Amino acid sequence: MPSLLNVTDGIVCPKCHEKIYLGEDCFLCESCNARFPIINGIVDFREDDEYWCNVTREKMQLLVKLANEKNDWRFAAKSVIPEYMAHFDGFERADAQFIWPDKANMRVLDAGSMWGGLTLPVAQYAKEVFALDKTVETLSFLDIRARQMGYENIYPIASTLNKLPFKDGYFDLVILNGVLEWVAFRQNLILEKQWNTKSKAIRKYEQGPKQMQIDVLKELQRVTKPEGCLFMAIENRIGYQYLTGCPDDHVNIKFVTFLPRFLADIITKIKRGFSYRTYVYSSIGCKKILQKSGYRKFKFYGAFTHYIAPYAVIPFKLIKDFKGLIISGGGKRLKLFFKVMPRFLMKYFSPSFLIIAGKSDKEFADAKIISLVKKAGILKDTSRIEPILISRRAGSRIPLNCLIFDTSRRSPVAFCKISRSKHHTEILNDEAVNLKYAGELFKGSAISKRIPRLLYYGAIDGVTLLVTRYLDCKAFNLKNIKGKRKFTDLSKAVKRAIDFLVEFQKHSLGREVDISDYFLPRIKNQKEILSGKLDDSTDKKIDELSGAIARLKGIKLNLSAVHGDFDFYQNILHKNNQVCLVDFEHFEKEGTPFLDLAMLILHPFVISFKESGKRGNFRDFLKVSRAEDLFKECLEYYFFKSGIDKRLLDYAILVAVLEQNAKDYPEYRDKRSFPLCDIEILKELFRTNFI
Description:
The structure is a single chain. By secondary structure, the protein is of the alpha+beta class. It has 21 helices and 26 strands.
């Protein structure tokens, strides 16, 4: 029996808006006698069997069948549609839910839910989520996912958006994520087939695209509560990507988005064989079409570079304050465009918009993340506080980052990390434990002011979050290490980081060990862990390393705290010639002091080596790129500043890289994200004949 039976109080006939009831094998309208069949447990309110998907109906049917038979939706997806896993597997697509107005026990409509990329993560915190789509096959897969993942508050419904089977004012929030631009295109569509091909027949429509979009928005407005709101994500008609030659996301043709509509229509008919009906709008155009549909209150965010998986979501009025953040993550096209763009104009050329639209003039409630931070006792007055979402890494296990920004002070007041999944909070728990320990360890030292201070960790309203003091500093972004001037800048930056590292280690000294007694058994164990991955030459080099370490018996070394992710491009930050350090999820109370050193001084060269695409000897690469002298200079500088016996200088990096490749990292961290966790790089380093 379909789960829709649990919530029939809000379900009505889409034709006459009267109550429906369950018959023998379908739902019936008691007023107009309309029949609505049940397909795979999903009530079908459509007038026609419409199909819209990335893949064919046959492939979707196979996916549904395999997911049922194996009782494993992820296995089925990897087997049938592996290229589309990123569309729904991770919870990062629903990051925007943390900027929605906060309200308890929300009833949500995901209008155009498709595979459930937003439906499932939103259902973690909502009372009920209705997943509505016009393609039964994608809804069937969504339903299987929901059941296999233990969700009991998701209700799939097959329906078009212009005639909804819900009573007036039923939903607290309606999601329209990348859907409005498609509602005027009513013919069946298989995106992977039609992306680069020409259709044979042009369908005629009685209404223009804009009017059809307005009709859908009015219908969504009808089913929204008076105090409820719409969340809409859509591309910007004059986004920088379109102005600089990126093809339209919907018809794969350059420049049509901002051309006059009649010209866009002619070009699309010539190239694709159908009319141009996937209208997107500028910020002004979005506001106008929403106003015509009955919405009265609006809040705009710019999503960079795309609403599907943005690395930054910034309130419209604050975009001018975050030019550096925007340029740093958007690639050359964005950097060149915004480099000459006056700050006050930047918001109008955002690539995508996230829009919250209210039915009334009433002010929106605080964004969910702001409300949570307030409940944590960190904020009292939230009237001038805005969230800025920063998402550098995808995955349900990886937390979402958020700046808590004070608009009156024009600066962030706190930094927040939020678990995307209620079931994967381990990374935040690890960091909270480590930050608490580090805060006590470095208390009273200069280090304490240059690492995050833990303000709160815990779960509020089911959401796990970690809040720290904001460190006002910037990343040192120098990926290209070529050129005399840049080498000078790089040398200064690395040496500042080494000064910090030495101070960090001296304030966290652990037990004293004998070099030979400590490292020899570790090297033996690491070699066994990597057995089968190394070639004979590297095996021999590791044996030579063990022999060299054995000859150092009697030399003492103090262990120290290890940051574990001493990343020169991301976690090591700079301001006023001082270094700050963030991201403590891999912090260890005691370990080899060379681990952080290796990551610091090798990362710039290893990353450059990999990006060059060259093969061969790493030492040769260092010579060709003129980096060898700088490498030696930084290594010797560390030993001079730390006071560690220089007889270890030739072996420190090899010992560290070997340990990092054999290290057992937690499930939430992909070892491949560490440039040094690479067997080929390990082999290259041992071929450089440092021994």
